[in-house]
Design brief:
The complex is a heterodimer of chains A (226) and B (521). By secondary structure, chain A is α/β, with parallel strands linked by helices. Chain A contains eight helices and ten strands. Chain B is 55% helix and 12% strand. Classes of the chains: A alpha/beta (226), B alpha+beta (521).
């Protein structure tokens, strides 16, 4: 489902020198697979997710999503792949404050192809247990509820890959597990591949596959075990 | 969810800022409508005034503009006068003889003729002998009378020199005021015969009462008609006596009173602001008769009967009220002799093809000047109204720019706080073009909302001010009016386009948003 080959990403420092962030010879996620990505702060976890989503362009390498190498696509092409095939859950939820919970979920479909399906938006809100809060604006929701709306929004366009960037970091411990369960369960139900970035060993420990990003190299689960 | 809805939601989310921007835009459009309406009313009012019903004005030599301002608009300082006999040269035989009936010369000649006929009849003289007798007596006596009167011979029984070239000649005597309004001594022809709106064949109409008469059994020569504005402002009603003031609005009030017999319907012409009195009555007011010993046989343009306030007061010093009343009473019994009359100007309706020739003939003479008022009015229009028009248009353009900038500022200011939202939309798959479209839609919605609100407010203002504008100018202004629509149909969409165009700047800013940087984790 997702394959990265020889992906490198670096940033230009103020003095003009290059700062390497990512150097990933090979990274794959199978269809429907769920995995956790761990690593120290600043090691490039978010950059990796951005690169997979096409928000940040890799300097070199291939990024295949459902057989489409987005590294070779134009920006508009990448936008389209992102809209159609990728869902994104942020640490800070990033719900649009002017829109209700229902509208935020609908927004997830707005930029994807095909007909917008309000019914699916309702079902997703129901699935995350917020059908009774559909008309509420984000400011009227608790942080846990906001993240649940964010999960529903990320799945709205029926993506094949869900990228969750520390989705429990801002959630109180009591609700953290509920969010993780929600993400995992809904991804399973929708057959969506999941990459979840987390600092929490407790969260990471629930996944069969945990990859660690250290320095600039991705250490796979197999390597970690070895 | 459509992009339109996203843009609308974004506007609603920034409620106060959006509201202020919309009001700013609405204010701009409302001012545009107001400016265009003012421009339309001024232009239309000027056009109405240029529709005169006459094509030539004859008055004392001097500035053309001053003559037109005085005669057409009843503005500016009074001009000099021209002899009444000059006016008679523009009349046909019958009318000329009728107006000369008051002449001392004519009266003297008639008396002589009567005497000699009586004498001849008594002595059994033949008709030829009687005619010869009259001629001899006239030759013997009339020259003395002429010398005494310092006046040229008054000839009866012929057309005026320009009588056959003139369809209509209306005399005007100016110089007095009633309140702030000009008093115009004239003949009933001004309202009976003058078609002021040739296109629609409209004469001046009376809202109340009737036209003044040459001589009325009840009021004699002392009838007045007032314009609509005068009647409204001074609350004048039919039957009310009015006393003009001499020379200027603060001048002394004439003892002679005129009875208001008619109130004009609003016409949108300067006549709305005029007080019209019978010219015969005008002449009979104190200080309006040219003293015989002061009358000059030539060039009446060089003298004026209108005296200033100080001179009049000096003349009146020592006169008792009884004496003044007696003087007033004495002069009202008979019309003023033609030799003691002057007029300020006359309005001529001349056949189109004869106008240039007549104009030249008058201007080559020494007694008066002829002007073609429409040409002068359009000259004044160019000189006065066009600069106002340009000023208003520049003002309008500035309003448009300010309104557009307010939209730019509003959207641009919101951009910093919205970069996160834009980044989220980009992360959800929105392309750069899509977010740019959303921002442009916002600018369009703000421009449209403000535009519609301003348009409605502007036209509602026109509707509310309509009756007042009509009273002041005679120009009809409703909610929708043809005065402004042509310009509005260009200016308001242009303003909208400008507002949308300035939205391109923040839209480009949205287009360039660095998603990775702007996105919270």
């Amino acid at each position: 489902m997702l394959q990265l080959r020889n992906v490198q990403k670096s940033y230009t420092e103020p003095d003009g020198s290059r700062l390497p962030i990512l150097d990933i010879p090979k990274f794959e996620v199978a269809s429907g697979e769920q995995m956790a990505l761990v690593g120290k702060s600043g090691c490039g976890k978010t950059t990796l997710l951005h690169t997979i989503a096409g928000i940040t362009r890799a300097d070199t390498g291939e990024i295949n999503i459902d057989g489409i190498d987005i590294a070779k696509l134009s920006e508009a092409g990448v936008d389209k792949v992102r809209a159609d095939r990728i869902g994104y859950v942020f640490q800070t939820f990033n719900l649009l404050p002017g829109f209700s919970a229902f509208e935020n979920v609908l927004l997830g479909m707005t930029f994807a192809r095909g007909r917008k399906d309000p019914q699916r938006a309702k079902q997703l809100l129901d699935r995350v247990g917020l059908s009774h809060r559909a008309t509420h604006k984000p400011t009227a929701l608790s942080v846990g509820e906001q993240q649940r709306v964010a999960v529903a929004r990320a799945l709205a366009n029926k993506p094949s890959l869900l990228l969750a960037d520390e989705p429990t970091a801002n959630i109180d411990p009591r609700n953290q597990q509920k969010i993780v369960d929600l993400i995992r369960d809904t991804c399973r139900e929708e057959s969506v591949s999941l990459i979840i970035v987390t600092h929490s060993l407790e969260v990471a420990g629930q996944f069969q596959r945990v990859d660690r990003l250290e320095e600039i190299n991705l250490v796979t689960a197999a390597a970690m075990a070895g | 969810m459509s992009l339109f809805r996203i843009a609308l939601r974004s506007i609603l989310q920034r409620g106060v800022a959006s509201l202020l921007t919309t009001f700013s835009m609405a204010l701009g459009v409302m001012l545009v409508v107001a400016v265009l309406s003012i421009h339309g009313v001024v232009s239309q009012s000027f056009r109405n005034n240029a529709s005169l019903g006459y094509n030539m004005i004859v008055g004392a030599k001097g500035g053309q503009e001053q003559l037109v301002l005085n005669t057409v608009f009843y503005l500016s300082k009074p001009v000099e006068n021209i002899p009444y006999t000059y006016y008679l040269e523009f009349l046909k035989r019958e009318e000329r003889d009728r107006f000369q009936a008051s002449s001392l010369m004519v009266q003297c000649r008639t008396a002589l003729q009567d005497s000699i006929y009586l004498l001849g009849a008594g002595d059994g003289l033949s008709g030829i002998a009687i005619e010869q007798g009259i001629e001899k007596v006239e030759m013997a006596m009339l020259p003395d009378t002429r010398i005494k009167l310092h006046h040229p011979a008054v000839e009866t029984g012929r057309d005026g020199k320009y009588g056959l070239m003139t369809d209509l000649a209306i005399p005007l005597c100016l110089g007095d005021y009633f309140g702030r309004f000009r008093v115009v001594g004239t003949t009933p022809a001004l309202f009976d015969e003058l078609v002021y709106d040739i296109e629609n064949n409209r004469k001046f109409e009376f809202a109340q009462g009737r036209n003044l008469r040459s001589h009325d059994p009840e009021h004699g020569f002392f009838e007045a008609v007032v314009g609509a504005t005068v009647a409204r402002e001074l609350m004048i009603s039919i039957g009310q006596p009015i006393s003009p003031r001499h020379g200027d609005p603060e001048g002394h009030a004439h003892a002679q009173q005129f009875t208001v017999v008619g109130i004009l319907r609003p016409s949108g012409t300067p006549n709305d602001r005029g007080v019209f009195i019978n010219m015969e009555g005008f002449y009979l007011m104190e200080d309006h008769a040219m003293p015989l010993e002061e009358a000059q046989p030539t060039n009446g343009a060089q003298q004026s009967k209108i005296i200033d306030k100080e001179t009049w007061q000096a003349m009146q010093k020592g006169k008792s009220a009884a004496k003044k009343a007696e003087l007033e009473k004495r002069v009202i019994r008979e019309p003023l002799p033609a030799e003691q009359r002057e007029i300020t100007a006359m309005l001529l309706k001349v056949p189109y093809q004869l106008a240039p020739g007549l104009e030249n003939a008058i201007n080559e003479g020494t007694q008066a000047q002829a002007v073609l008022p429409v040409a002068v009015i359009y000259g004044l229009f160019e000189f006065i109204v066009n600069p106002i028009e340009w000023t208003l248009l520049v003002l309008t353009a500035m309003i448009c720019v300010v309104s557009a900038i307010s939209i730019l500022v509003s959207i641009y200011n919101s951009m910093s706080e919205r970069r996160g939202e834009i980044a989220v939309m980009r992360a959800l798959g929105a392309g750069r073009g899509t977010v740019m479209t959303i921002i442009l839609l916002e600018a369009t919605l703000l421009a449209l909302g403000g535009g519609v609100l301003g348009w409605l407010a502007g036209h509602t203002m026109c509707l509310i001010a309509g009756p007042w504008v009509e009273q002041q100018t005679g120009v009809l202004v409703g909610f929708l009016n043809l005065l402004t629509l042509p310009l509005e149909s260009v200016l308001i969409p242009s303003l909208m386009l400008l507002a949308i165009a300035v939205g391109i700047w923040p839209a480009i800013s949205a287009y360039r948003t660095d998603v990775a940087k702007s996105l919270g984790k």
